[in-house]
Amino acid sequence: QALNLTLNPESSHFLLNDERFTINLPGQYNVMNALAALAVCQALKIDLPAAGKRLTSIERVPGRFEKVNAGQSWQVVIDYAPEPESIRRVYETLELIPHKRIIHVLGSCGGGRDAARQPILGRLAGQNADLVVVTNEDPYDDDPEKIIDRIIAGAEAVGKKLDQNLFRVVDRKEAILKAMQLAESEDIVLLTGKGCEPWMCVANGKKIAWNEHEVAFQAIQQVLKTKV
Length: 228
Description:
about 20% strand; globular
């Protein structure tokens, strides 16, 4: 159990067994992940202070509140967060970071996954983000247009307006570029659903190579060139 918890935009601090621990990751959910790791260390008789030093040395976890920096004046955060609860946790963590607006790029999985969550994801994005860009994720054999329709319906149900503060961009690479083009200084662009997954799964068992961090980095660079 973490005691005396302190959450900062770039780090988290807590007491465990009277020892002070620091992780260079923001958010309560990252503290919970650290506690799980420390519990395993304790069960394996590994010295907890030594384990804590290793935790402190971790600068980033790919696809988990991972920041992308290409010299832009806005922040870009990648988080896997495919479920409503995980997206709520990400939004809680974003509140720790001073910002002007949040621009959220999201899709939802197909392949027989719970279709009922798709409008819920749209509602969450619509309620918490200033601008929402709905796109493709991993449709498998499902119709990506229908998945996007359900997400958009959820966002519209809480007041978002298509082509004003809600955008439909089926191609994920183009959607990420759109978000970077919309971004202004002190905004946060949030990319959820893919994290560090190396593939995008589409129809007929096909997999398309994907690197969310690299796509975001290139989109930022492209936008910065046009703003010079």
